[in-house]
Amino acid sequence: MLKNNTSIVDDRGYNQGFRETKALLKRMERRADWMIEAMDKQPGRKVLEIGCGTGYLSYVIASKTKMQVLGSDLCVPFIQGAKEKYLLPNLDFDVLDFNKAAETVSQKFDYIIGNGILHHLYYHLDAALLAFKKILNEEGKIVFMEPNIYNPYVATIFKNKTFRKWARLEPDEMAFSRSFISEKLQAAGFKNIEVTYKDFLLPGVPNWMINPLIVAGNILEKSPVKYISQSILIKASTA
Known about the structure:
The protein is α/β, with parallel strands linked by helices.
């Protein structure tokens, strides 16, 4: 029987990320930087992270900017741990079921972000995108990193029943393609849609491989091999 000891598991028994390693932290910091690059970083701008897990991405963004960051997740233990571990004046955490975002969020945000979250909403993505628009300000923006279904590793995990069980995936989650999410965003009325192939750095690689993989990934992202990148970077605005 295959065992998966690299993941962090939520209170429902599903995998919601990877255990902290040097590679994972580097990967998350790079993703935070890509998200920050897509934002107008004026102090006081409001950022909502959907599915923040243990809170590290929200923490990095809050620590590098003066924006107000709210990390949210439906896993109560994750949120409790994040509140205890990451303390900044412009950072907060709250329990939020992103399937019911429009119903439970009373404030508006300038940005909604997430790392590996939209694919959890695969079968409810139309409703989720419309819900995001309702809680975004007039010129709000979404920025997400999602697994690329054309990556061989990702395809194996998501399409094979044995590996889905090993990875403790939720029944409804499914990785998708650049064209799939672009069409969904267009249908929901988002503008300035930009979906790019990004990142070849996996979270569990040995420390000595981190920098070489980053260098190689930067080259591969500009080559035809980019189509099998580990992730896609999704950006779109309401206006």
